[in-house]
Amino acid sequence: MNAEESLSNKNRTKRMAKIAGSVMLSGTLLWTAMPTQAAVQWLPYTDISKNWAKKEIVSAVEKGLFVAGKENPRFFPQRPMTRAEFLTLLDRLFTLGQDQLYSLTLTSGADHLVETNGTEEPYLPYRDVDRLTWMYEPILRVSVVLERLYGPQAIQNIFPGKEFHPEQPITWQESANLIQMFVTAAPEKKALQILSERGWLDGNQSKPLTRADAAVLADKVSAYLEQGEVLPLLDYDGQKFPQVPYIENIFPLFYGYLKNSTGDDKVFLDSVTAVSNQMDNPDTYRRLEALGKAGYPNQVGIHYYLSWNPDTDLSQNLNEAIAAIDAYYADKIVIPETLKLLMANVYDICLQIEYTDPQIYEQTLPRLYGYEQKMKQGSEEWQQWAIYIAALEMKSGAMDKALAHYQQLTEIDAGLINTVYYLANQGRLGEAEEVLDNAGKRLKPDRKQLLITLADELNSLKKQPDYIRDLAYALKRTEAVRGYKVTGESTLSGYLFHYTQVFDEKTKASHTTGFFQSPYKLVKEKLETYDDYRNNVQYSYDFEQQKWTKTKTGSFDYLHEWVESQSVEQRAEQLGARYLQQSFGSYDVITEWIPGDKLVKSADSIEFDSARIKRVPMYVNKYYVDRRSGFVVRHIWRYEEVYDSNEYAAYSGQETYGDYDQVKMVIPATISEQAGEEK
Amino acid sequence: MKCLRGIILGVAFTLLFGTTSGYAETQNPYLELDEVFQLLHENHLSRPAESQLVQGALAHVREEVNETKKQELTYAKTDDTLDELEARLSSWQNQYDLEPRFLLTESINGMLSTLDDPHTVFFTEEELRKFTDSVENQMVGFGFRLSTKNDRLLIREIIPNSPAAASELQPGDQILGVDDIDLSGKSLEDALNLLKGPEGSQAVLRIYREKESAEKQIRLKRARLSIPEAEGTLFNDNIGYIKLETFGSDAATQVRDQLQKLTNSQTPMKALIFDLRDNGGGYLTAARDIASLFMEDGLLMYTTDRNGVEMQTWVHNGRQVNYPVIILVNENTASASELLSGSLRDHGIARLVGTKTYGKGSAQQIIPLTDGDALKITLNEYFTPNHMVVNHVGLQPDIEVEDYVGQVIAGLKHFDVKRFVLSESEDGTQINGVEFPILEQIFKEDTAGSTMRNSVLSSITGDQSLPKEGYTSIQSYLAQHKEIGWQKIGNQTIITIP
Q: Which range among A234-238, B89-93, B308-312, B433-437 shows the weakest confidence by mean pLDDT?
């Protein structure tokens, strides 16, 4: 959210939808209750009507996980599922859950296949899966995602050797090894154990996985993925907390209406339609106001929709939002869902007022505290009130008060997540664990996944010192060797670079060769440089002029250059970096997220290429450490930096390291002597 | 780790945000000229200088105006910037009342003429569609193929999923006319031209169906038709034959399916003749995918651009063929065809039979321009995996055979075929069960009795002493060559060699 965003109604809708956590379906007003379920259930296949997994098969088809239709009349539920089929299913599951995994894969959509600009397209390490087959792309995509998550050739840890045997039935063990990519359980846990703890193992594991088994598994995993992120406590841009609940419909009617209402009712309904379809104009609000003054019974609705008026002052909107709550209590009918929306509305308006008046939360809270006496404490209604009170308190800086509220709200998801997040943030990991334990005791079955996910994440938070130590050790090892070789590909604001670099740690010099491509050209250009890190000098070859030029280096042009100069310990302590270590095959993969708000604060005084950093929407590194050698073998990164000059730098890439200790290089004297100073 | 820091500093470029792409939106009538100029100047393989392009454009416009309007335009030899060019164009436009579109296309053509590169082309929207249609093997028509028999135009074949297929037309129907045009007695070429029309247009065909002794009128629409890019069949000798006409976007899957058909047939093929004659190329990705049907892993080619950046294109996750392959090539085998042939030969997978190929070793990209036109621009030169130059040179075949039929026979002979069954009809030539178009008759009857074309006879017998041109009396040849078996059954001639 940024201050420049104009406060038009349109933006508000977008924003409200955002805080509500739902994507709004514009124009879908529910005039009447939806038909609950068709009397005769449609079945996508002819051979599942009596199958035990019928429900899950249908649900998986509805989610696009299996293809039905004329060409595929039968599902063959009892047939063992082949490896190729399972990987295709996994690919579709990943597509469903890619946003939830984004913080770990740093890729979305199909871009992991095209990102390399065709220079080095990924391929499979198998001889028996051919390009021009239906299974090739899904298997390749899974392999690419696995490699992102777990390091080079990760798929070989599940299917070793030069043959993939695509037609071979997949085992429960293999499927568990694959499915665990969707969770971040501790490395010591076995894949089957992870799945069984989550209740994802239903079939007979001594028998092959049937297609029905796979449908059930996929249905459960997709339900888990729909529920939220894989790392719910991770907040790398500093925008995610405090969290507020999910709201289904932000344009309800509040009262029951007939389909063909007339008179005042019709005026009201038309106004709601106008607001929700973003077709509202000053008349819309004049009519609502007139209705309200005339004593129209649905005062909740009147005030709620008046609070959307883009032409009145935000403080007036806030007054209407609060008046809607007054009207709600005046009705004396308990509808927690309604109160939730009304409180969300107040919170949303406050978030907007904050840009001009940071004190808004402190000013608004006293206007809302009074409602508490109208409710039974701990009731569902009270919970909806309290969850927003806590959010406002958190925003006002009253951390303790907010946390006290959250701790009474652990029965609802947002309450639990906020409690664990803020406790963990203060280093109170033991208390956070206790909260989870207690929540687990009063377990509702649909919350099991969330509790396990939070426990896994809390566990990783407890291990931060280990991760920091491991990463620091691996990076220092690199610096302790004589030299090494880097091959890399990266994109900086549309410019693609492809290079090989040799570093000599003793002479503190490097030599780089490769090419780059400008987004404004169709052809590539060569590049070659020598860097002298002792004297902060760079020699680069000008291929047009055919001569070497010399430039002074040593200042920071970009935020990421400054961050790179910070040790892992500094990043952890001063920049609030968070780490996750995952182990798979022969690699430990350490992901590092540095929260944008901390980066902006810490780098506040640094002049980057005559601009200051304003916002950092994303700052993530992934390091792949070979457990046998202890060396970092690969590094992937994705940074987004916005400067106060309004320059936006998106920088992402991948480097692979090798030839440790085998590289020696000195900058040729002919070059350092000849090079002319850059103008 | 010190990441990319060094590199970013080493390269002189500015980060651009917003509208700095060089193609700013203006009211400029020569917007596409700007674009083409920029594209050529910054990307064309030959690194054309600004003055070269500007002078080329001015000279060409002057020539065109002189020819069409008999006006003598003048400009300075010192005009060497885009601004100067545009200033000239707009002053000419006013002074001589010239169409901006005319000036635009002629100055672009003038720039292109300085490149000495027939493959860099300015396309109008219509021309672009024709070009992609030809790459994709698409055409607009009713959906039948014609042949002539005794001066009658007959429907030889009906293309599936076409308007013709949905109508009551049948193979063998004689075409008498279209709308008001009488087609009787017309040559095949004339008839095809008269049958043409825009997509979606309707026409009434007059036909005569011999077996019903009836004349009929059939209303048909012209539609866009996709002609198969690859077709495959087996020679009598279990040798597969696949003809690829173009490297369109379906080429690879079609070749895959044809290969599948041939390897899964009752008598699986033991060798393959892959016909790339008269195949002018197409998409590089199609060539790469097709290469993957012949090799598991391997380098397809090297490419270089104007800045000397060399890239490798690899084939991965392909399948290795387990039978020998012959590729038929001729002087019209060009571009993607040469790329594929060269690569498969360098990897020892295929041998080339035919004549020296065209020699188009450059790769183009099609860039859409602002007002709907497009520029096909040469960006790269490519080389085979053994670094063989293709451009302007062509590939020399392993077995050189000039005759069209002789090339097929040489391919079969390479796979130890000793028995050749030849027949000729109005529709084509059959060689061991596979049909080829007739270019020149194989057998002729003359006063000396039956004769056979020398080039075909020598390709079967390997007899180099025969003259290249002309026909030889079969009877006298057989009398001198007792080792050659000869049989005639119906219209089939069966020749066996030891």
A: A234-238
pLDDT tens digit sequence for A383-431: 999 999 999 999 999 999 999 999 999 999 999 999 999 999 999 999 9
For residue A509, the chain B residues in CB contact (below 8 A) are none
pLDDT tens-digit series, residues A145-179: 999 999 999 999 999 999 999 999 999 999 999 99
Pairing of strands A578-584, A587-593: antiparallel
Report yes or no: A489 and A119 within 8 Å, Cβ to Cβ.
yes
Contact A564 B308 (CB under 8 A): no
**Domain spans of chain B, in order of start:** 26-116, 138-226, 230-365+377-400, 418-496
> Which residues does B236 contact at the CB level (< 8 Å), separation at least 6?
B421, B432, B433
Q: What fold, for B138-226?
A: Pdz3 Domain (2.30.42)
- Cα distance between residue A627 and residue A588, in whole Å: 6
Distance (Å, rounded) from C-alpha B362 to C-alpha B380?
6
- pTM greater than 0.90: no
Tokens standing for residue A36: 């609950």
**Helical (H) or strand (E) element with B164:** helix B163-166
Per the CB < 8 Å rule, is A527 touching B7? yes
Average pLDDT of every residue of chain B: 90
Q: How many C-beta atoms surround the C-beta of residue A104 within 10 A?
A: 24
Residues of chain B contacting residue A493, judged by C-beta atoms under 8 Å apart: 15-17
**Residue B480 host element (H or E):** helix B474-480
- Contact residues on chain A for B308, CB-CB shorter than 8 A: 526, 543
CA-angle at A643, arms to A640 and A644, nearest 5°: 150
Superfamily of chain region B230-365+377-400: 2-enoyl-CoA Hydratase; Chain A, domain 1 (3.90.226.10)
ipTM for the whole predicted complex goes beyond 0.90 = no
Nearest Cα residue to B424 out of B489, B345, B491: B491
Contact B3 A564 (CB under 8 A): yes
Total count of residues recorded for chain A: 679
Cα–Cα dist B210/B150, whole Å: 14
CA distance A168 to chain B (A): 19
Residue A558 CA to residue B4 CA, distance in Å, equals 12
* Residues of chain B found within 8 Å of residue A499, distances taken between Cβ atoms: 4, 7
* Nearest alpha-carbon partner for B315 in B391, B364, B252: B252
Selected for mutation to probe chain A from B317, B320, B367 (highest A CB count within 10 Å) is B317
pLDDT score for A444? 74
List the B471-473 sheet strands across, edge first: B443-446, B449-453, B471-473
Do B39 and A522 make contact, defined as CB atoms within 8 angstroms?
Answer: yes
Helix H, strand E, coil C: the string for A514-540 is: EEEECCCCCCCEEEEEEEECCCCEEEE
Please give the DSSP secondary-structure letter assigned to residue A247. -
Cα dihedral sign for A456, A458, A462, A465?
Answer: positive
Distances (CA, A) of B244 to B247, B259, B293, B391: 8, 12, 14, 22
Architecture category of domain A470-677 in CATH = Clam (2.50)
Distance from the B380 Cα atom to the nearest Cα atom in chain A, whole angstroms? 9
Q: What is the mean pLDDT of residues B40-65?
A: 96
DSSP string, B404-444: HHHHHHHHHHHTT--EEEEEE-SS-EEETTEEE--SS-SEE
Domain locations in chain A as residue ranges = 44-227, 249-409, 470-677
For B364, nearest residue in chain A (alpha carbons): A522
A26-83: per-residue pLDDT in tens?
333 333 333 444 445 678 999 999 999 999 999 999 999 999 988 999 999 999 999 9
Tell me the per-residue pLDDT of B103-132, one tens digit each, with 9 for 90 and over.
Answer: 999 999 999 999 999 999 999 999 999 899
